[in-house]
Design goal:
Elongation Factor Tu (Ef-tu), domain 3; Globin-like; alpha/beta; globular; 13 helices; 3 domains; six-stranded antiparallel β-sheet
Length: 401
């Protein structure tokens, strides 16, 4: 929806009272979910109105957002859905919002922004909930938003004591592996802490305030350099710029490392690793970490899927690790059967892995296109791997922001 030609008065920033600052109750959570169900069919209009209110009445925050708001609008509603669905899981919600609060520092978000944003959110929800909106529902939203903002603010303030909101990083190497895939190595301006399996959000100078997340392709290195694998995707502003425009000497910005796809040092289970396309990057990093510190007697089965032989660009490097370490077995997979004979297993990666089931006792890590990760997780569930032993970062883009 377009912003109204005669905008309503600016939502007042309400002073919090005792009722609004109380923790959400089970009844509040019911009301939140019921109101989201009403808004979801008109989410595009509701979120457009929300941002119109913010930019009309608080123009000072417009510079924090990208010029094109389509992705940002979609991300907001997905974040709201996730928060609402997790409201009765305090530990899970706190972890998610902590990552979100830390990540929002790179946008320049300040503590004082949360109050006005909350008032505009309540005003937009009230408009699009219609008859389902009443004083009880408004109080429920104020309580939930108050909880959300408190956790995010505390996380941001804690993070500010130990790390910058972003890092500057110079491109020192740009290797074109295929027409649409590049391996990019960066030198950050100061120490950048991360773990193998994690990702960083990246902003380019060509698309200010547009951030996309990319996984680290190596374990932490003594020289401090960072490597990413990037595939230019259709309508991918950041990925396209990184693959086809970036060159040594260019300077990018990085948000803090995030992601839960890291090795559990206390768990000695055998590992099943699935990497599809450039999703092989964090898988390679995990293997590299194991090679550095030792596999501690466990075996590692790695399935590497792609659409063409050229897209198995990391296979030679993985084969070299496999030759040095008997605990690693690498299985290339090609989905076009005609390309597979003598080179790789034939079929879609999740289905190929399922053919080798059961995988009882394994801990699985998945990285790649979202559809592949979802199919892979479902295939592993059918193959006997409990959901709590399947790790991926499909929700990482929300935390990455």
């Amino acid at each position: 929806a377009e912003p109204p030609s005669h905008p309503s008065a600016a939502p007042a920033v309400a002073a919090p009272d005792a009722a609004a600052t109380a923790p959400p109750t089970p009844r509040d959570i019911q009301l939140i979910r019921a109101s989201l169900a009403v808004v979801e069919p008109v989410a595009d209009r509701a979120t457009a109105h929300f941002y119109a209110l913010i930019f009309l009445h608080h123009p000072e925050v417009r510079a924090l957002f990208p010029a094109a708001m389509d992705v940002q609008r979609d991300r907001l509603f997905r974040a709201l859905l996730l928060a609402a669905r997790s409201a009765d899981d305090p530990a899970g919600l706190t972890g998610y919002l902590t990552r979100l609060g830390e990540g929002h520092r790179k946008y320049g978000t300040l503590t004082g922004h949360y109050g006005p944003v909350g008032e505009c959110l309540v005003a937009a929800l009230a408009k699009f909930c219609g008859s389902r909106w009443d004083t009880e529902t408004e109080l429920a939203w104020r309580r939930v938003y108050g909880l959300v903002s408190r956790i995010m603010i505390e996380a941001a303030e804690s993070s500010a004591r130990t790390s910058p909101p972003w890092w500057q990083a110079e491109v020192v190497s740009h290797q074109q592996r295929t027409r649409d895939i590049a391996v990019i190595t960066l030198r950050p301006d100061q120490a950048y802490p991360f773990r193998a399996g994690q990702y960083a959000t990246v902003e380019t100078p060509w698309w200010p305030r547009v951030w996309r997340h990319f996984s680290f392709a190596t374990a932490p290195r003594p020289d401090g350099l960072l490597t990413f694998h990037v595939k230019a995707v259709q309508a991918g502003w950041v990925s396209g710029a990184l693959v086809h425009r970036a060159a040594p000497g260019d300077v990018l910005r990085l948000g803090p490392a995030a992601g839960r796809m890291v090795l559990d040092e206390a768990d000695g289970s055998d590992l099943l690793l699935l990497g599809g396309g450039t999703g092989i990057a964090p898988v390679h990093a995990l293997v590299e970490e194991l090679a550095q510190r030792g596999a501690d007697g466990r075996s590692v089965e790695l399935f590497y899927g792609a659409r063409s032989r050229a897209e198995l660009y990391e296979l030679d490097a993985l084969r070299r690790i496999e030759q040095r370490h008997r605990w690693l077995s690498v299985h290339p997979v090609l989905s076009p059967p005609a390309q597979a004979p003598g080179v790789a297993l034939a079929g879609e990666l999740p289905e190929v892995v399922a053919r080798y089931a059961p995988w009882h006792g394994y801990c699985a890590y998945l990285s790649g296109p979202a559809a592949m990760v979802r199919r892979g997780a479902a295939a592993l569930a059918r193959a006997g791997v409990p959901a709590e032993r399947v790790r991926h970062d499909l929700v990482g883009d929300l935390a990455a922001g």
